[in-house]
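agent> fetching stored inputs for the flavin-adenine dinucleotide docking request
agent> found them:
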Amino acid sequence: MIKTRKVLVVGGGSAGWMAAAYLNAALNSDGMRRADISLVESPDVPRIGVGEATIPNINHILAVVGIDQHDFMRRVDGTFKQSIRYVNWLHGKGEFYHHPFSRQRPGPIDRASEFWLRSDRSIPFSETVSAQPIICELNLSAQMLGPWDFGRPLSYAYHMNALKFADHLCELSTARGVSHYLDHVTDVEMAENGDIAAVKTKGGRRLEADLFLDCTGFQSLLMEKKLGVGWVDCSKWLLNDRAVTMHVPYEQHFPGYVRPYTTATALSSGWVWEIPLQDKRSLGYVHSSAFISEEDAEREVRRFEGSHAASLDSRIVRFKVGHREKAWVRNCIAIGLAGNFIEPLESTGLYISDLAAVMLAEHFPRGDDYAPLAFRFNRIMANRFYEILDFINMHFCLTRRSDTEYWREVRRPERLNERLKAKLDYWRVKPPSPADFEDQLLPNQPVNPLPSGGYPGDHRGPIDTATLWGYESYEAILYGMDFLAEECDAWYGSDRPPPLVLKNVIEKLSVVHQKLPPHHVWLQRIAGMGDYPVTQRRPFA
Ligand SMILES: Cc1cc2nc3c(=O)[nH]c(=O)nc-3n(C[C@H](O)[C@H](O)[C@H](O)COP(=O)(O)OP(=O)(O)OC[C@H]3O[C@@H](n4cnc5c(N)ncnc54)[C@H](O)[C@@H]3O)c2cc1C
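agent> prediction call returned; pasting tokens
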């Protein structure tokens, strides 16, 4: 006989509702009731929702919860995301490269990057191994209007309104047995053994549980305020701590297409995201308050967008990059912004909340000894956090920009974390390949204890498990940022042939217009997007 454990999710942002929906589906849908799940959220504290981009792992939670893709896209103003287009990151002179989600394989051994390194680099690396950068530049959909008959399906994620996603999950979960309280938590009551016993609310409720999920956002009501679990600050490696956000409604400005990718354009003191939704574009200038004031950042992003942005409302979102010393302590687990945050350059916020829910379902207690489960959960979350941190750190530290104080600062050696430094040093000797992700003990990497990574009490450095960013993603960024340019001159001389584009990339692109409709046409026909008059055709940024 399985014991049903009471789980109380405190906080109803996207992290809280993803956790509630996922746990309910993963633990209770086979006829066993392992968890009795409730969620309490304050009517007084707004959730964060900026217009989010995701990574393809989002399809996992949709599948587990049983959400139909087209229905989902209609509900969350969703559009396809096939890539991130990085503009102005290397020199600040209009150059760009893509980090696409799909890549073709040339054969049983992948030597595509070796060929590219030996070439004159006259075609960007990603365009030689993937059809997706050009599919993106043509603003085409990731799906056909009819059934797919275009070879291996393209990988994609979505751009979405995360507030509507939380509402959708709330509706589904409450219909399937999750209890929902709209009430403000005012107090946390402790048990004698040091566990959390219950939370008390403004409405006079006392909500008991066996497990409490702290999903209360950056304020971390349970984990930080009550249990006193500290925050490990990582701003040394990622300087940004603010975003000026803005929405550009299509009613006011529709350029005539919907980009099937996220754009990240480097500005003077950070970068701006452009996330296309079905009814608007979301913009956010992620910047460092040490280098630009909020007022100047707002002026800069309005200038970037153009004259039609002069009258748009804007909002400042302040954030901190780092993680809880431990995400699971006693009977409390911090998920979402209460547990960690890395700036949104690779769209990993919702992913890491989702991962925490997946890991909790897998480590869900059967008995009363939570400590071994918490140890593993914390280890996995720390691994993944630092995996993301390294990857994002790399986008900044490889820049050759020196036009502003900000870009000069991010290039300084102390802004490069030592795990990433060990990787880059090694890759200057041997370019990245799958073997590098088998084990992360690279030459010259400090082992015990690592200055960055892990959590107190765990003396092994975190490792990349290659489930998120493998060598293919590293190659996209590294070669997009012209990594190994000098080394290749030395290895292969300066007189080199043009790059080879993989045969299956050329084949795909030769018929792409017959197969894939424009992205906005697909959205209008399948996902219910409105029909907007074109205001002005704006060239690519
Ligand atoms: C600038 C920025 C850009 C981002 N961009 C992306 C992106 O592109 N892609 C992506 O995947 N992610 C992105 N994210 C992250 C994503 O938005 C968050 O991870 C996500 O919103 C999860 O937030 P949350 O649920 O943890 O917190 P919140 O949304 O802050 O929710 C907190 C919840 O706690 C409740 N609460 C607070 N106090 C109490 C109380 N006393 N009693 C009861 N309830 C309470 C609130 O009512 C709310 O429901 C971004 C985040 C930021 C800051």
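agent> quick read of the result: The radius of gyration is 23 Å.
agent> awaiting further instructions
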